[in-house]
Amino acid sequence: MSAPSETYAAILGATAQIEWNALERHFARGELLVVDRVLDLVAVAQAFIDDDSEKVQSWMAQNQVAVATDEQAADWLERNPDTLWAVVIRPWVLVQERD
User: Fold this and answer.
1) For a FRET experiment, which of 1, 15, 68, 90 has its CA 20 to 30 Å from that of 34?
2) Which Pfam families does the record match to this protein (predicted)?
3) Hey, what long-range contacts does 30-33 have (CB within 8 A, 24 or more apart)?
4) In this model, does residue 36 exceed pLDDT 70?
């Protein structure tokens, strides 16, 4: 296996666990993208940075990357999970709930 790229390592360093209340304003602005648990959050962020539209469009077509819905926001507000991870890839905030 090859070593991660410098970009991957930088994104990994900028990825952090986060509480829902810190994400609410991004949701309200329509800037919050949910990344499916089966994907590597950092690899998805790198695809956005690299402008790899083929990968991003494929994930979106499969609903593996999607704008956060009102239902997801209501669920997170109610549960306040401690398993949310996020990374900012302007103008988006990518969020993933992990087990």
Assistant:
1) 1
2) DUF2288
3) 30/67, 31/91, 31/92, 31/93, 32/67, 32/68, 32/92, 32/93, 32/95, 33/65, 33/66, 33/67, 33/68, 33/92, 33/93, 33/94, 33/95
4) yes
